Input
Amino acid sequence: MNPIPLRLRIYLSLFLCVLVAGVLGLIAVEHLSLLDAVYFLIVTVATVGYGDIHPVTPAGKILVLLIIVTGVGCFVGVAANSIEYMVDERERRTRLEKLNMIIGIFFSEVGTRILKMLSTHDPAIGEIRGLLLVSAGWSEADFARARTVLVSHPAEIDSRSLSLPELHAFLMQEKGFLLALLENPQLIEHDSFTPVLQALFHLTEELMARERLTGLPPADYAHLSGDINRVYRLLILAWLAYMQYLAPNYPYLFSLAMRKNPFDENAGVIVS
Output
């Protein structure tokens, strides 16, 4: 969890309390008008100090000393944390952009093909296919609506309907690429993509551990079905999130991704 926003909120809250208490105190003790009290307080905590207004009573001087000790510290805290927050946000956006580039490479090399392979064996694909025909006119609400439905989608692919040897061969072929992705430390910051890789590696390990992938017992097919459906569910949501990122940020990449949509039976990269 990033502590900077929390610190900034704390300093802002303290600063506002000092401002309110200082203004009310100056009005009561120094008998200043509201405008003069606010003006004097701001130039004091901002360390400007024009000197045109100053406390004349002992109580007022004590109050101003307290304002200087607390207010200036809070003001500096707000300023410092605001700058740190802006720098951190800029760095976070840069990391996110690089991470999404890696995710794009993943879908180009592996993810889209696996989704196409698995979706053709999803008995309930007809219920969600329309939700996955992403277009350039989609809004944030459209993506949110699709995500809500997909979260509860009953992925019930039967591993016996797949060519497990073909799936195993493809995963083994791409194993080096997937391992290279894990070497990127930025993946740790993506809460939804890391589980995709974990599920894929687990499925690969399950398939590797078997001497044969045909004629398995029903219970073993059921076990593999669970692993396959885990990959399928996570991949769909990761693909949708990636498309949502591309739409406003990289229209040209989004255009190609739409033409390669693994859920669109009529998809084709040729622009017609």
Observations:
- The chain has two domains: 4-89, 95-259.
- Residues 49 and 207 are 74 Å apart (CA to CA).
